[in-house]
Amino acid sequence: MFKSYNLIMCLLLSTLSLNIYAQKGDADQPIQIEADEASLDHEKQLTTYSGKVIVVQGSLRMEADKISVSYNEKKQLKKLIASTKGKKLAHFQQKMDGNPEPVHAYAKTITYNAPSKQMVLEKQAKVIQMGNEFKGSYIVYDAGKNKIKANKGRVRATIQPPK
After folding, report:
1. Residue 127: which CATH number?
2. CA separation for the pair 41, 17 (Å, rounded)
3. Whole-angstrom Cα distance, residue 121 to residue 102?
4. What is the domain count for the chain?
5. What residues contact 23, with CB distance under 8 A and at least 6 apart?
6. Which residue among 3, 113, 133, 140 is buried most deeply as judged by most CB within 10 Å?
7. Is residue 38 part of a domain?
8. Is residue 92 domain-resident?
């Protein structure tokens, strides 16, 4: 029972940190996690979910083959890494305050850095927000500042005209 509680608490901390710029009601919603396996390593301060992982909390949805959550001694999130195998891409989506459509992020690896509040998308990276699309091999999405930076190779952007 204690180990299950710690697994849930570690993911809860990570998901709440992602909700800083999300719809206000998301943080009040229950967290639902599905995975084939879950493990907690107190010594390494790491929780890992693997096998068709799906995390849902309010408008937040994350899907990957594996999600690893590292945390500090105070059980505060340091980093969350979602990754996939094969041709599949990890997927993150969430509605942000003031935007009717959710932000979608896709990549082979999605890393959320809690201290900087930035999401780094690596390999086949793509962010879609309000019909605008940004593609590249490496994208940094800063939800707090609503900024996207794509580099490390050719970048493609599709920007919709104002309505």
Report:
1. 2.60.450.10
2. 21
3. 17
4. 1
5. 58, 59, 94, 95, 96, 97
6. 140
7. yes
8. yes
